[in-house]
Amino acid sequence: MVGELLSSGAAAALGAGFAMGFGAFAAAWSQGAVGSALMGAIAERPELESKALIYLVLPEVLAVLALVIAFMLIGMIPAPA
């Protein structure tokens, strides 16, 4: 059914857009949750400030992996004839 509606290039481009969009949304959502929790923890225990940066950067890996997957999908788009 999908093969009749989309060409392989269009499906790869659509998949790349979804991968990047959902990956960035998930990274932003998790960074917001982790960031607010870490600010509360740092307010109570300031010595956790050095470890907080590590936990705040970890969700960003999700967006970077989504970018890699998007580039892999863009590489699957055939060249125009």
Structure, explained:
- This protein has 81 residues and is mainly α.
- The protein has a domain at 26-76.
- 81% of the residues lie in helices and 0% in strands.
- The protein has helices at residues 2-5, 8-44, 49-57, 60-75.
- It is rod-shaped, with a radius of gyration of 19 Å.
- The chain starts with a helix and ends in a 6-residue tail after the last helix.
Which SSEs are present, and which pair or pack?
Layout: H1 2-5, H2 8-44, H3 49-57, H4 60-75
Helix pairs in contact: 2-3, 2-4
Q: Please indicate the percent range of residues in DSSP E strands (runs of 2 or more).
A: under 5%
Helix content: over 70%
Encode the helix/strand succession as letters. Answer: HHHH
Rg calc: 19 Å
Largest sheet: none
Q: Total number of helical segments?
A: 4
User: Stretches where pLDDT falls below 50 for ≥5 residues?
Assistant: none
Described by the principal axes of the CA atoms, the overall outline is rod-shaped
Quaternary organization: single chain
E-strand count: 0
Could you report the average pLDDT, rounded to the nearest whole number?
A: 89
Structural class: mainly alpha
Distance between the termini: 25 Å
